[in-house]
Each structure stands twice: as structure tokens, then as C-alpha cells.
Design a protein that fits this description.
Strand order of the largest sheet of chain A: 7-6-5-8-9
Number of domains of chain A: 2
Structural class of chain A: alpha/beta
Largest sheet of chain A: 5 strands, parallel
Oligomer: homotrimer
Shape of chain A: globular
Number of strands of chain A: 9
CATH topology of the largest domain in chain A: Rossmann fold
Largest interface: A-B, 27 and 25 residues
Helix content of chain A: 40-55%
Distance between the termini of chain A: 5 Å
């Protein structure tokens, strides 16, 4: 039996490991072992609040019989007041439990943490960096719906420059799931960054870029919608206004449903603001709440693979 | 065995159910079954902080062997920053556990949540709306002291317009406990609202209204004191000043004790600010801390009735 | 079997009890009994956030099978908004569990709490008052390294006026560990206060005072470094500037290591800001992270001695 030694970035996995994650996720979804993590303690270290992600991890840990301690806003609480470094905090926290789930407000936080921790780290989002467990749950959702992740046309829509979920998703698609085509649909100022495009090119993934959603909708199998990451535009209010204005053209609503294939699915990492209208929620193609639920099973699988082995 | 399908508002219960709640509460007080809720997860979703109420529910859940995950300030944390709706949050949270305990800052929150949740909701206070578990613990406290809730004279004192506990209490008294008389004692600007008065009238409950506490004290069996809900007066500072001034006449102190019956009890939903002086605490008629303790047993009973059945 | 009835201040213990704490701490470090506190609930009541201390206690409780409920910022959350007293909060919280761990922002908080609580209180820091469990873990660390706490030269460095850890440490050294010598090294405005100097004199402990760290370093066995308690200087910005400037002379860095004995140890209660350079961390004399780890074992021992007995 081997152990996963943490989850830091999308690129770390072999294709075989990704397959194993999915097969353990299925097991967790269907017959979770209640006392598997008895005696284990998870430390949720969130430097910025993310109620959804934190509770998803904490639910996963509790369902497997483990215990949770943590903080939901470390940046505003003790750390800011006292000026302690992430490195010191992690070094101490790594004595408090058996695994750390870290949300950090700056890119590279998870990697820095791993260098100083004596226990495994799961990256639960690091600024504009990555959010690898989100990408895994996204892919698990696609796999459940289509049986396989191949030959699909996948549109990523919205604030692609600041959305870390779409970035992580691209890494996974390039490395492990050849034979799909990606459509980047975004306001001009928030296009997918070049590093990702290069990465896709290197792996021979076909991609195209547009700001015309209506043209893309009839063609694609997956619409992955994202929100404008308002909190990333703090010092750029005029850019934000423009992005917001152009984003209005990218909303998924009742009219979009008419254009879409019957077999397509609409995904969203949540939270959703206005970029998908509420009247789309009851359409059978709207899978974003199922997607969030899958997150719990994926995280249960990862906790098992890290703390117990596989 | 049947299950309670959530606790949203005071009016939802039949008199028989209220009696069953009290009899299970007694059981919980005397011999709580330690592992009854093993494997169950409670999600405490608090949009505004209420340390006391949250910890009371979390203590109840833990005493029965269940697990707790949650957030104590969702409005200030992720939701405000990202603008997510209550409906979306609840839909996702309903995958995280087996029951949601919701505190919301606006009236109607619990009802809205119930419409979107796939698991039961307990309303732990929704703005100026209701706080039904508080009313249940209030009534349980009265019943323990007087043996029955009948033929009693009950004074509700303080900010009756904004206090949701007195509102919920009136609903219960009207529907399930006939034969009591209510005295509303309040500053002029914070009188009990008309909807409640109508409700009492409909059920034939006798009530009277005054701002003279001294006149009422010698007569009543229960004094239910409440604090001025300062946080509800944000844009009405001059009204607040007047209410605060008149409230000084409604303080329960050593002198009030002299006027009161020997058999009377003084209740308060807490937190208490200045409306009951500290030197009253040691009088045997002061039951507000016992009342808070009863809250744990009532909540244990409700959790059992919802998650296991009765 | 007797029980410890809480931990309020350093002076409360007999020398025999301190020895018993250390021997149970050793047991907790080497073979912790996993279900010892099953069914027990700890309430962590933190009026100001201290992620490290809170998580240390919560980790200790969880490792022994107990449960935790709590709040990490009571002052900013419900209490501030509603103006409730510490006494009322504690009275209610003492129904929620079997032990309260209290961090309070003002001196004397733990003592006040104990007067109103029906369950034991552990003082997790009260303003500029005390932090007795910190002192215990400090001493346990010294004992582990030197075998005994006798005949040692101990330098306490930094903001000695506002640092409660050095105060608690002095109390313990004076009362229980005779035969050591203390060197106070600090900026002029933050010298150790007179009450502690008197206390040391009363017990015949030798101490001296200086602002020259380099002179002291070659001589001492223990360097106990502390940070400037910035949050205690809110209304004294010019004093703060001066203290900060003089503190730069008290930094432990690579050069300090050359001056120090090979057998010496560098301690710090953490969080560390700039008063120990990062390049010191890998030196074998740097024990501050081990010290933090020892805190978990000390707290496990105290929880056992209070909740189960010894």
C-alpha cells in the first residue's frame, strides 16, 4: 500500500493516480467506511474565508470518523495582528494534527507550506494559483455524466485570467485526458493567461479563444461557467467595470438553454452570482449542485489516500 | 416512529407534538443517550454571530455523539465578499450533513432555506422573525417550575417590537396553552406589534398593555424580561435614545423583588445588559441561567426527533 | 485520585503538583490514551483570537477523544454587539461542557470567570496578566533539555513589561525551581515590572537587568526571546517607535549563535516576527518549534488531571 503525500498542484499526479482517485471517490460515494479515519486530526488553516470549501473538507473528514480543528480567517485574526509568517504557522500547525488543509491568499502558499510542514498539505486554493481538488471534482463530475473524458468540447467561460479553477482544470485535461477541445470564452481583459495556453500547446490540446458565447453554445458538451473574481480587482476599478460590462454578454440563461445541445452540461465551481440565472437551475443540464456534492466524495478519497494509503 | 421534519416557526406544531417535545426533553435532561447521533453531521450556518445559541446547539449535538461543522459569521465572511445567495449556500450545505441549524439576519430566512434544502432546517433566529427553539425552552422552564402552563399571569417586558423571542412565545401560548393572561410592558415605541395581538385575540387569549412595570409586578407569576435590540435601531438613533430612556423604568432590581410574589419567576432569553441588575441573580426567583441550561436539553430532544424520530 | 480544579495562575501550584504535571506530560508525549476523554466537551472561549494557543488546546482535547465547541473571536462577535458581561457568558458556557478554556483581553479575566463558572477554567492568557500553561510548557522544554531546572542561567529578552509569558515563567522559577539566575534584557521602556522583581527577591532568586544582549549571550544556558507586544502600545506610538528601535539590538541571528554556548538553547513562545532571524532555525540550539509541540502534551496532561484526576 502506498500513500499520496499531499495535494499541491494539478500537475503532480500521474494519469494512473487520477484514475485511482476516481475509483476511490466512487467507493466513497456509494459505501463510505465510517470509522476509517478515527484518531486522525485534520487542521483547516484558512487565511481567507471560504465557507463552502472549508465545510466540504470538514464534512469529508467527519464522515470518515476523523476530527477537525481549524481557523476560518487566519489573515484577519491573529496573523495579521501579530505579523507571523506562513512558514512558522505551518511548522507549528504540523504538530497539531495529521494533515493540513490550507487556503492561502497568495499564489504559491501551498508549496511554501509543504517545504516547512512535517505532515501532508492539501492545497485548498492559493490566490490566483491553483485549486487542484476543485479540478478533480470537476473532472469526476464530467466522467460521471459522459462515462469518459475524451472527445468532448469544453467551453470555459468568464474571468479566465483570475479563476484558478479553470487553470487547474486545463492542467489536468492536458496531461491526463487527451482528445478534447477547449473553448476559452471571456471578456478581453480577463483572457486565459499565456502560461496555460503554452502548456496546452505542449501537450497538443486544441483550443480556441472568443468572446462570443452564443456561437460556442450549440457546439459544446460542457459549459464551465465562472464568476468575475471581484476581490482580485481591488486597485483596478475601471478594468473591473469593463470586465463586468462584457460579462453580461456571457450570462447563461433560459435563452442559452435553447442554443445548447440536449446532452450538454452546465458546470460552475460556485459561488454563483449573476452569471447563471436562477431559472436555469431546474434544467436537467444544470449540474453545478451535483458537482459541489461530488467534492465531498473526492475529498474523502484524497484524505483516505493520504492518511491511510491505497 | 415518525420524524419531525425541521423547526421553522412556532405555529407549526400541534399541541401533542409540543407535549412530546417536553417529555423527550425531560429524558435528555435526566439520562441522555451518549451515542444516539453517532455518524450524523450538523451544519451550523450562522449569518450573524450568536455565540450562545450556536454553542447551545453544538453542545447538544456533541452530547448525543454527533459531529458539528459550521461557520459563525457567514455574512461578514465569504458570502458578503462574493455575494452568494442564501438559497445557493443552503443547497450546497445540505450535502454537507444531515441537518442545518440556520441563523439569518433577515426575517423569513429559515423558510427560504427550507424551500431549497434537501435536509431538515432548524431556525435559530431569523432577523425580527422567529426563534422557535427559544420559545420551547422558555415554556419548558415555566412548566418545570409551575408543573403546568395554565392559569398563569405572564408579563413580557422590554423591547417587544423587535424581540423575536416574545413573539414566538405568544404564538405558542395562544395555540397550545389556553387560560393564561399576558401583560405587555414596554416603552411606547417598542410595543408588541399588531399581528401578534390579533393572533392572541383569535385564540381568545387575554392580554393587556402598559408601561408601568411596578403596577404589574405584584400580580404576575412570570416576568419575561428582554433587552433593547440595539442592533435593530441602526438608522433611528433618536427613537433609540427615547426607548433607552423609557427602558430605565423597566429594569428589574432589588426593589422589584420586594414587589413580586414569592412564587414568581424572572426569565430572560439572554444576553442581559442592564435590564436585570446583577444583585438579583442570587434570588431564588431568578431562573434565567437555568432557562439557558434547559435550552441544551430542548435542542437535544429536537435533534433526536428530527434525525432519529420519536 | 484527586482532581486539579482549574488553571488560573502560575502561583497556584505546589512544587509536587508541578512535578506530577511533568510526569503525566511525559506519559502523554509517549503513549497518549486515545479515548480517555470520550464524552467530555471542552468550550474554547476566546475573546481575542490566538490561533496557535486555541488549536493547541483543541488538538490536545481531540487526541484524548474529547469534543470541542467554541468561538475564536468573542469580543468582536456577539459580545461587542450586544454588550454582555464575561460573567454572564461564563455562567452560561459552564452548562455547555465540562471545561472552559478562556482567552481574555484584560488582566484578571480568568479569575473573574472562575468565580462564576460551575466547571473548571483554564486560563489561556488574560491581557497583560498571565498565561500559565505557556510557562508550564516552557519549563517542560527546559527540563527535557537539561534534565533538571537548577543551576541554570536564564536570559529573558525583549518586551518584558507586556509579555505575560515571562511573567508566568518568573513566578514558577521563584516558587518551584530555586538555584537559577535570571538575566532581564530589554529596551528601557519595557523593563520587567517591579511586582515580579519583588516576587523574585522574596524567594531569593538572583536576577540582573541590562540592555546589552551580546554581553549576556556567552554566559547563559537559556535565551528566552519574546516579541514586542505591538497590540499593547495602541495609544503610545512614540514609545512604540523607541522600543522597536532598541529591540533591533536584541535580535538573535547568526552572529548571536557564535557568541552562545554550544549547550545553550533558544526559546520563544511564538509567534516570532523579526526578533529571531530565520537562518537561526536550523541550528540545533533553536528549540522553539519543539517547545510549541510540547505545549500539546502539557495541555493533554492538564486536561486529564482536571477532567479525570491523577
Amino acid at each position: 500500500m502506498k500513500k499520496l503525500n499531499g495535494v499541491i498542484r494539478a500537475q503532480q499526479f500521474s494519469t494512473k493516480t487520477v484514475e485511482e482517485i476516481f475509483s476511490i471517490t466512487e467507493w466513497m460515494e456509494n459505501s463510505p467506511p465510517a470509522d476509517l479515519l478515527k484518531g486522525k486530526v485534520m487542521v483547516t488553516l484558512f487565511y481567507e474565508p471560504s465557507t463552502r470549501t472549508r465545510l466540504s473538507f470538514e464534512s469529508a473528514m467527519n464522515r470518515l470518523g476523523g476530527r477537525v480543528i481549524g481557523t476560518e480567517n487566519a489573515k484577519d485574526f491573529s496573523s495579521k495582528a501579530k505579523g507571523e509568517s506562513l512558514e512558522d504557522m505551518v511548522r507549528v500547525a504540523s504538530d497539531y494534527g495529521h494533515i493540513i488543509v490550507l487556503r492561502y491568499h497568495k499564489k504559491g502558499g501551498a508549496k511554501r507550506a509543504q517545504n516547512f510542514s512535517r505532515i501532508p498539505i492539501i492545497n485548498a486554493g492559493d490566490g490566483v494559483g491553483q485549486h487542484p481538488t476543485q479540478a478533480l471534482l470537476d473532472l469526476y463530475t464530467i466522467k460521471k455524466r459522459f462515462g469518459k473524458i475524451k472527445g468532448l468540447k469544453i467551453a470555459m467561460v468568464g474571468d479566465l485570467a483570475n479563476g484558478r479553477t479553470v487553470r487547474s482544470l486545463c492542467y489536468f485535461l492536458a496531461k491526463h485526458f487527451p482528445g478534447n477541445k477547449i473553448f476559452f470564452v471571456s471578456p478581453k481583459k480577463t483572457r486565459m493567461k499565456n502560461d496555460i495556453k503554452r502548456y496546452l500547446d505542449r501537450y497538443g490540446v486544441k483550443w480556441t479563444e472568443t468572446d462570443n458565447l452564443a456561437q460556442v453554445l450549440p457546439e459544446v458538451d460542457v459549459i464551465y461557467q465562472t464568476r468575475v473574481q471581484k476581490e482580485r480587482f481591488k486597485d483596478k476599478q475601471s478594468v473591473y467595470k469593463q470586465v463586468e460590462r462584457e460579462s453580461r454578454e456571457l450570462i447563461i440563461n433560459k435563452e442559452s438553454l435553447i442554443l445548447m445541445k440536449e446532452s450538454a452540461i452546465i458546470m460552475h465551481p460556485l459561488p454563483r452570482i449573476t452569471e447563471i440565472s436562477y431559472d436555469v437551475d431546474d434544467d436537467k443540464r444544470a449540474v453545478y449542485f451535483e458537482q459541489a456534492r461530488n467534492g465531498i466524495f473526492v475529498r474523502m478519497a484524497l484524505l483516505k489516500m493520504i492518511l491511510v494509503g491505497y
